[in-house]
UniProtKB/TrEMBL annotation, chains A, B:
Domain Gfo/Idh/MocA-like oxidoreductase N-terminal: 6-123
Transmembrane segments: none
Positions of the GFO/IDH/MocA-like oxidoreductase domain: 132-244
Superkingdom of origin: Bacteria
UniProt organism field: Sedimentitalea todarodis
Database matches in Pfam families: GFO_IDH_MocA (PF01408), GFO_IDH_MocA_C3 (PF22725)
Protein name stated in the entry: Gfo/Idh/MocA family oxidoreductase
PANTHER family cross-referenced by the UniProt entry: BILIVERDIN REDUCTASE A
Length: 396, 396
């Protein structure tokens, strides 16, 4: 094994890539050697910042001999073809969540990577957030007895951020199930050990102008008896970040006076001007995230154990014991999302895959579909593709 | 119709009565004319404070000609016999929640009151809280479009307050389902219009020393398409009052340094000393509630409508609109729980029963049982005893 930086090619220089920029700029374990993007402006910006080779299509990126692993950050509905192409070219893959839109595509991707003997990691997702990882360690330690119940909720402006048309079509992987539920599911599965069993859920699609699911509530049971409530609304009314110390999803302090910004910005936009707003949020489009003061988070999460309830915060884990309350900080790394790079590094340089493999991502995707199915049929949906999180290893 | 004060007899001078004391002391629409209680000390205290007649058993209270209506505040498992006895004696009834423990008892009570032509009102419950009533008015007005989703959660120290043995036995109406879930269900049904349809739920009984349900999570669908998530834990770890401005259930400002008081007070108590602690909380036992600074509440409640999410607070309703946030106060009355007296007054003096009739309470009790049944069977439970909240009348 080498300890050389991982030579990473990037497929897609859109919003997901922009959110990874602070990591790519700061983490010396990665070297961005190539990228593929349809927009010339993005490719130019990439060469200007990182050097390396750029390609107009993902096929050429997959064939690039300088590339050791590919970060697939293309739109959801393209993940399957791009991951399979990367695997068939012998490249390891980091694919942004969700793994895929359909379970069939997801299974095809896992099989292709297995066949090719390459690592497939699904991330970033909020299951990589340091407070989530810390909570997982605390649970696994047994310090507070058995895990019993989890409650996760999040109220955001997701549906009113600028969108391309397909991001508002459920069958193309749009709406909150594939973009947002998958975060909550990933976190909750990680905390509960992974083996979901049954799902009962309701969904809401309440804005005819943005005709996709914008809210859901789900009750998820696990094989180990743990149960979890997951609730999400992307309709931009109540903002549950007030219960996260007014820290936003990406770890930045929020200005309470900025209430309603997303909806105001979008007000009066037609599909064309909305696409322009969206393009501004992609690489080379002008926006660039400032360094966060806190960890990323995905809304309030309460984890009930026998002798304490853990409350995740943007800075760590609050330990609500029987007679006293404490706090354990999750230290900030110099580069945000260092745990995503950890996962890639451990897999490619030490042969130790993370929890969030392709099969793990497929299990989380199964829960997304189960929520849709339960809501559509009014039935409880049994899960069949779940896998357990491996027993926690010692820190490397 | 007279406008004389209602001549109220009280059956049971325990904790429920103590919590009504500020109301009974301040609201001139009621006159406490009699009481029944097994403890001589409670009867003496009652005569000392209110005058009137006291009885050792409820049968004698029912026969008391000075009594126009009876407030049944005896232990849950005695509600049925006491309410039926009151009805058969021709007395109107205010019965503390829950209506009864079993649905059969509940139906028997409703039938007895119907047959006798007396009013049966189930209260107090947190559905009478002024912010809940205000939220109901806002929803009914249609100002913010259709109601879509409700989330209610509450994390308390319920299971570690001093208890008599039967309060920790589910079959006797103990545990959180009959004491606590019924509040949440009553509130949510009131906000959603009343007609529950199906329930999916999980419960937890995680403390072998207090072997009854201490937590649950439920997904409740309504006939009108609204769905609600209800979560409760009485295991005294995380305290969700931090999300209610550090105001406790009874409307008092909480001292954050008092974290863990209930568990500490109970620590090392055997059943006998716990019974002594419990007795201290009954009438004449020494404890007396101070006047609250805020309304009572039952934990965070978020109500999603098309154009705003309503967040209930101990002072009113926060209106989270699309682009701005506002607040509507629910003014404090001189006497807390005035809305319970309103209900009694309107029924007995104006012939207008409140929403919270016996049939309403039976419908809420049905949801309690549905939660237990769904958790036990792993199935979704269809509801058959639901009734609608009447269309909102003008304020009298």
């Amino acid at each position: 094994m080498t300890s050389e930086p991982i030579r990473l090619g990037v497929a897609g220089l859109g919003r997901a890539f922009v959110l990874m920029l602070p990591t790519f700029r700061a983490d010396t374990r990665l070297r961005l050697t190539a990228a593929a993007a349809p927009r010339a402006a993005s490719r130019t910006a990439f060469r200007g910042e990182f050097g390396g080779t750029t390609h107009a299509d993902v096929g050429a990126l997959c064939a690039d001999p300088q590339v050791e692993a590919i970060y697939v950050a293309t739109p959801h509905q393209m993940h399957a073809d791009h991951v399979v192409a990367a695997a068939e070219a012998g490249k390891h893959v980091l694919v942004d969540k969700p793994l895929a839109v359909s379970l069939e595509d997801g299974a095809r991707m896992v099989a292709a990577c297995d066949r090719a003997g390459v690592h497939l990691i699904v991330g970033p997702s909020h299951s990589f957030d340091a407070p989530v990882q810390l909570a997982r360690q605390i649970i696994a330690s047994g310090e507070f007895g058995s895990l019993r119940m989890i409650q996760a909720l999040n109220y955001t402006d997701f549906l009113y951020r600028p969108r391309r048309a397909e991001e508002l079509r459920t069958d193309q992987g749009g709406g909150i199930l594939f973009s947002q539920a998958v975060h909550q599911i990933d976190m909750v599965r990680l905390l509960a050990g992974g083996l979901g069993q049954r799902v009962s859920a309701m969904t809401g699609a309440w804005d005819a102008a943005r005709p996709t699911e914008g809210a859901y509530s789900a009750l998820l049971q696990f094989e180990n008896g743990v149960f979890a409530t997951l609730t999400y609304s992307g309709y931009a009314h109540f903002d549950s970040d007030i219960w996260m110390g007014n820290v936003g999803e990406l770890g930045h302090d929020k200005d309470p006076a900025a209430y309603g910004t997303a909806r105001r910005a979008l007000s009066g936009a037609d599909p064309a001007s909305e696409a322009t707003l969206k393009a501004r949020r992609t690489y080379g489009g002008g926006e660039s995230p400032a360094p966060p003061q806190h960890h990323e988070h995905f809304g309030p999460v309460i984890v009930a154990c026998d002798r304490a309830d853990l409350r995740l915060t943007p800075d760590g884990v609050e330990i609500n014991g029987g007679t006293s309350r404490g706090f354990r900080a999750a230290p900030l790394h110099a580069a945000p999302r260092a745990s995503v790079v950890d996962a890639l590094w451990q897999a490619l340089r030490h042969g130790q895959p993370p929890v969030q493999t392709g099969a793990w991502g497929l299990a989380s995707l199964e829960v997304c579909h189960a929520i849709l199915t339960s809501a559509a049929t009014g039935q409880i949906v049994d899960l069949t593709r779940q896998i357990a999180a491996p027993t926690q290893k010692e820190e490397p």
